[in-house]
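Table S2 (continued). Query chain:
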Amino acid sequence: MTKVGYLGPAGTFTHDAALIFVKDSKYNLVEFFSIQELILAAARGEVDEAVVPMENSMEGTVNLTVDMLIHEVELNVVGELIIPIHHCLMAKAGTKIEDITKVLSHPQALAQCRKFLDNFLGGDKRQVTESTAAAAMLVMESQEPWAAIANHRAGEIYGLNILKEGIQDNNDNSTRFVVLSSKKAEMTGDDKTTLVFTVNHKPGGLYQALKIFADMDINLTKIESRPMRTLLGEYLFLVDLEGHEDEAGIGLALEQLRRQSSFFKILGSYPKIYP
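Corresponding output:
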């Protein structure tokens, strides 16, 4: 049976994404308690695939995911899911908002609810956890008047009351999750490719690299600069483009870019998967 890892415990948004991805019983879901542990398990072959968060519409790239894919492991992105993120403030029965002394959640969730926390909970202490569901679990286990920011499923699993729903600063908040595997995804005709590269420091270097795609009429849907993790001021570029690396035109463009780049890595060509 195929093993699919996800960021646990049960009740995280990554768990929601994993449930959408697997759909049928031929998959065995395995929980991990940090993104690093999950990605390394996939790289070691302890799970066949891993579902990890990669980008949020409010907070941007999940740095740990992207940096590990670029610098630390040899895994392929084989699919993606984009799901809406609705945060809830939850606590044990009998706890009121005015009683709360600490709010626990994943750093992304805390950041996505910053305005609510500032306005409704003032200077209450905020504690970072490995996941939103881990926060709910800690609140359940504590005798203190704590609250967690998590989703409805976590509230149900850990027996917490929802004090307020939809506390995210932006109601269009969504997260892009990707599926990782040691294998590559086959071309479907509705694909995208994610890659990273860097160019030499010379006038027009980045322009010449991007011109390759313009000349071949290849649409770039994202470009982001990231530190190269070598010297200050050295950057690589994370790019999403429409198409699969095995398409003739895409393959030719990527080969030209590879020859111009001092660092080049394809993170994956994969079908767009939406719930």
